[in-house]
Amino acid sequence: MTAKILTRCYRFELVDFEPDLRLLVWHDNTETSLTVHESRLLETLCYFAGEVISVQSLFDKTFVQLDPYEDTNNNHFDLNTLLHSLTKKLDCNGVMSIPIEVIPHFGFRVPLPEKACRLVHHTDKQPRLSAETEPETHVESATEHIVRYSLMHKISVVLLAAAGVAIFIFSFL
Fold first, then answer.
1. 160: phi > 0 → left, psi -120 to 50 → alpha, else beta; which?
2. Closest alpha carbon to 18 in 99, 123, 95
3. What's the angle, vertex CA 19, arms to CA 104 and CA 124, rounded to 5?
């Protein structure tokens, strides 16, 4: 029996990162588990992909919202150690599957993913079809549904655009 779980996914050229399951899913369908903190760190970097995020911001956004029942006085997070263990797991035959760029005196940056989406993750250990032959399941969010099909949304967008144009024109009169 196959269990299916809807997860968030950041798709890169060599690997998919599924932060909800703390997994790196390689294109040969093998999986690499991440620790909670490695996953939080990579999720923060992917959330700000393409942008340089400072060390302090990265630390705050990764560790500030920890479990309130967790004793944070005994947990000292070393970002360098965490980055080192994460980069080992991201290595694929000597190539970083998600390159974490270090920008001296500024912070860190990862490239934009090819796609950020929701996927159905299969939890069985049976081999899955390759990414080329398996149809990708896309679950449309409520917001996407409204944008695509709601007549009220389309009317409000047109009215807002007309109001913006009117304000622009009247500002020069």
1. alpha
2. 123
3. 140
- From CA 60, how far away is CA 41, in angstroms rounded? 10
Distances (CA, A) of 20 to 30, 106, 118, 169: 17, 29, 10, 48
Query: Residue 52 corresponds to which amino acid?
Result: V
Domain range list for the chain:
4-122, 142-171
Q: Please, what CATH class does the domain formed by 4-122 belong to?
A: mainly alpha
∠ CA 113-141-19, nearest 5°, is 40
Instruction: Spell out the per-residue pLDDT of the chain, length 173, in tens.
Output: 566 777 788 889 999 898 888 989 888 888 899 998 899 999 999 999 899 999 888 888 887 765 555 555 445 567 888 889 999 999 888 888 999 999 898 899 999 988 887 777 666 544 444 444 444 555 566 666 677 788 888 898 899 999 999 998 998 88
Tokens of 80: 């360098």
List the one residue out of 41, 72, 68 whose CA is nearest residue 57.
Answer: 41
